UniProtKB/TrEMBL annotation:
PANTHER family: NADH DEHYDROGENASE UBIQUINONE IRON-SULFUR PROTEIN 8, MITOCHONDRIAL (PTHR10849). InterPro entries: 4Fe4S_Fe-S-bd, 4Fe4S_Fe_S_CS, NADH_quinone_OxRdtase_chainI. Residues 46-77, 97-126 form the 4Fe-4S ferredoxin-type domain. The keyword ATP-binding does not apply. GO terms for cellular component: membrane. The keyword tRNA processing does not apply. This is 4Fe-4S ferredoxin. Keywords: 4Fe-4S, Iron, Iron-sulfur, Metal-binding, Repeat. SUPFAM superfamilies: 4Fe-4S ferredoxins. One of its GO terms (molecular function) is metal ion binding.
Amino acid sequence: MTFRHLFGARRSRQSVDIRSKDYFDQQEGVTTVQFPKEKMPIPEVARYQLDVEIDDCIVCDLCAKACPVDCITIEAIKSPEAIGKTSDGSVKRLYAAQFDIDMAKCMYCGLCTVVCPTECITMTNQYDRSTTQLTDLIYGFGEMSDTEIAQRKAEWTKHQAEKEAAKKK
Ligand code: SF4
Ligand code: SF4
């Protein structure tokens, strides 16, 4: 047995896809996969880090409401008129001033991806972003600058004021 392990130590184990019928077969070799140089294949339905295609987001807040651990923070700014369309044709009426996901709190349940009407929040195959700073795991997907946010808020306030004034006439 010692000699078997001695010779086996010259080989490392193979990276086998979990969907392979040989997945549970005993492999020769004693060392594990040499991560990060080698990586195990991951299943297509695996739940890993989230990504948001912000251009396709209608800022409906459904993902944040569905999240059991409140790790999605969204701040929306209303627009007086439609601001564009997503790739599936949904009309966008809100700007995303903030769209943050705290991956340090996320429990990878995938609920946010299920409720999204435009399927713009998805789980990627990214699982190895380690860091020593927890705050690095707050991913910001919003793309608006502070100036643009202030401008859009001012536009909405002006629109509301004009509506109120028109009602009083
Ligand atoms: S995967 Fe679950 S815990 Fe993570 S952000 Fe989405 S809903 Fe929240
Ligand atoms: S559910 Fe989808 S469309 Fe709605 S805010 Fe979340 S990511 Fe955007």
